[in-house]
Amino acid sequence: MCTAVTYRTHDHYFGRNLDLPSSYQETVTITPRNFPLPFRRAGLRRKHYAIIGVALVDRGYPLYYDATNEKGLSIAGLNFPGNADFKPEAPDMDNIAPYELIPWLLGQCTSLDQVKVLLRRLNLIRLPFSERLPLTPLHWMISDRDGSMTLESVQEGLRVYDNPVGVLTNNPPFDFQMHHLTNFLNLTRESPTNRFSPELHLEPYSLGMGALGLPGDLSSASRFVRAAFTKLNSVSGASESESISQCFHILGSVAQYRGCARAGDDGFEHTLYTSCCNTDRGLYYYTTYENSQITCVDLHRERLDSDQLVVYPMLKGQRIYLQNGCVPQR
Ligand SMILES: C[C@H](CCC(=O)NCCS(=O)(=O)O)[C@H]1CC[C@H]2[C@@H]3[C@H](O)C[C@@H]4C[C@H](O)CC[C@]4(C)[C@H]3C[C@H](O)[C@]12C
Fold it and tell me: What domains appear along the chain, each with residue ranges and CATH number?
């Protein structure tokens, strides 16, 4: 399970939870402008925008899970099993493998308008990265500072949706998720008043009762509703610290704790990392399952005209501030 969200205060933020039973050894990866990006059916791109995000680097190629470019355009890939359908190659189309989509769009677009133009010729093809890393079923949220869209390649073809909520989870398809919100249109951040019956004296006994009925389970349909409610009702100051705190809290409302959702024989789904990127300033913040301290990597501190990938291992061990010099026991 996974969730992606956008958040906006003074700056714009794009974040995600990566939920899996175990890691692929992903890293915070910067692809500078002159790193040659080969596309299997669309040639070699020698110059492109610089990109920061989380990727598995395999055979020298950045396999991004989510990323933002130096212009603030962002994309996250989320599981979409049973619905994602990638196609055979087609003439007169841009034939792009799913693992190439993030660098292909972020390398050349600055906004959703530019993405929309490229999507008219896009054909996501059934081409795996390697035998060890086969095709995986994904759909994507793509955002700039003014909006978001959802991209799904399904049996009927490529579906491009405006995403006015700025949230994406997993199954079912996005049009269902949007319609499903209608079931919750009575939820409110305010204290509810009695509409049950004028014949009864009913009063709220607790704050938060306006959101009674907000689904608390871990399914992707429920996480979509919960993340949407939390995000759309979010209040925070506009400073960097207040903004990223709120963005991490929104994602915290749909985080997965190890043990609550079994993933077959692989173990239990849990949030391996949570990220929140300030897309205006290229600051990629993250926490991991065991390290609740926020770590930040700054795109603009790297040599962006270089041709070498820059890779930072994610800091995974818990970091505790020892306020009075205490020594935690093992
Ligand atoms: C599984 C990940 C998404 C997490 C998620 O949505 N979980 C939900 C599970 S469920 O539906 O609710 O069951 C996705 C996001 C990005 C994906 C990775 C990226 O696409 C990059 C490469 C692409 C290669 O083809 C496969 C390995 C891979 C390294 C992918 C492995 C896996 O599919 C990742 C890590």
Answer: 2-175+236-313 (3.60.60.10)
| H runs (alpha helix) in 41-134 | 101-108, 112-119
Q: Is 105 helix (H, G, I), strand (E, B) or coil?
A: helix
* Complex ipTM over 0.85: yes
Distance from the alpha carbon of residue 18 to the mean position of ligand 1, in angstroms? 9
Which atom of ligand 1 is least distant from the CA of 78?
Answer: 6
- Reported as half-sphere exposure (CB side, CA atoms, 13 A), residue 94 has a value of 17
User: Which ligand 1 atom sits closest to the C-alpha of 102?
Assistant: 20
Ordered per-residue pLDDT tens for the chain, 330 residues:
699 999 999 999 999 999 999 999 999 999 999 999 999 999 999 999 999 999 999 999 999 999 999 999 999 999 999 999 999 999 999 999 999 999 999 999 999 999 999 999 999 999 999 999 999 999 999 999 999 999 999 999 999 999 999 999 999 999 999 999 999 999 999 999 999 999 999 999 999 999 999 999 999 999 999 999 999 999 999 999 999 999 999 999 999 999 999 998 889 999 999 999 999 999 999 999 999 999 999 999 999 999 999 999 999 999 988 988 887 776
Residue keyed to tokens 């791109």: 45
Residue minimizing CA distance to atom 30 of ligand 1: 136
Whole-angstrom distance, CA of residue 149 vs CA of residue 55: 22
Pocket residues: Cβ below 6 A from ligand 1: 1-2, 18-20, 24, 56, 63, 65, 77-79, 81, 99, 128-129, 133, 135-136, 138, 170, 220
